[in-house]
């Protein structure tokens, strides 16, 4: 099967492409290799893919309308896994236009490409950040999400709405996956596992926001990628029981599905830091700070639907996952 993976040089895209190639799929990788974080890390991921049979790469920006149209016309992917985006909640406060360009205009170009190429199934990355001001946990895809707390979250929620319109208007099967705090080897340098590990190993203080009173549903990369690939294999179909009188946000009379993809086990921030301390063998110097704008107190995924529909079973404990990340970090940076 020929599958287009956008964000192929990114953290989740790289691991997804590796798994698809390992099972014999043909992968068309797309990435713009921007400098939001260390480009050499993206290039190092890409170097591992480029030697694999069945992999081709296109350096292309999602917002390039003509370039995207040409790619879909020439590559003719059967399915699409859309993971490219301008990421980062806090960065969206500093550079909002980048989020509109990549996450809104770019996503529109992906949807149009899928429509024109008659793609069998589009799986796209949403985010747990869409839950915003919701406080009922665990977060359920069947609950409304009308109060985003950052522009990043608002763009991800917009993606869900845009995708539904294409499913309704054109019969394009689409599945949205709301990711919950993904971590593991080859992770992003702007995320806390990377930042905390680096600073702890260097003997530098780490910034602990909300005075440590956070909890996150940390989900190991191998578990995430297994769920992504299982999702692309199961083409979204209309929900025959869906009713406009009591509309379920997670399904539709169109071929549209939304799922949480997380570990279903929130970990208090201080316990998470202790895992990194154990993996590094060093004590963290902690600088306690107030809650940051755009942050949420707790993330906690209800994954019942994904378990039922595709057999998703995350099974990597945080202690093991963080040990693997720290081991990769030491090897990659020669520490």
Low-confidence stretches: none
CATH superfamily: NAD(P)-binding Rossmann-like Domain
Main structural class: alpha/beta
Rg of Cα set: 19 Å
The strand order across the widest sheet is 3-2-1-4-5-6-11
Compute the number of structural domains: 1
Reported CATH architecture: 3-Layer(aba) Sandwich
Overall pLDDT score: 95
Main beta sheet strand tally, sense and closure: 7 strands, parallel
Describe the structure.
This protein is of the alpha/beta class. It has a single domain, classed as NAD(P)-binding Rossmann-like Domain (Rossmann fold), CATH 3.40.50. It is built from ten helices and 13 strands. Strand 1, helix 1 and strand 2 form a beta-alpha-beta unit. The longest helix has 21 residues. The radius of gyration is 19 Å and the shape is globular. The chain starts with a strand and ends with a helix. The mean pLDDT is 95. This is UDP-glucose 4-epimerase. It comes from Methyloligella halotolerans. One of its GO terms (molecular function) is UDP-glucose 4-epimerase activity.
Entry keywords:
single chain, 335 residues, alpha/beta, Rossmann fold, seven-stranded parallel sheet, two-stranded parallel ribbon, 10 helices, globular
Indicate the topology.
Blueprint (H helix, E strand, L loop, with lengths): L1 E5 L4 H12 L3 E6 L7 H12 L4 E5 L5 H11 L3 E4 L13 H21 L4 E7 L23 H20 L3 E6 L2 E2 L8 H11 L2 E4 L6 E2 L2 E2 H13 L22 E6 L5 E2 H12 L4 E4 L15 H7 L7 H16 L2
Parallel strand pairs: 1-2, 1-4, 2-3, 4-5, 5-6, 6-11, 7-10, 8-13
Antiparallel strand pairs: 9-12
Helix pairs in contact: 1-2, 1-7, 3-4, 4-5, 6-8, 6-10, 8-10
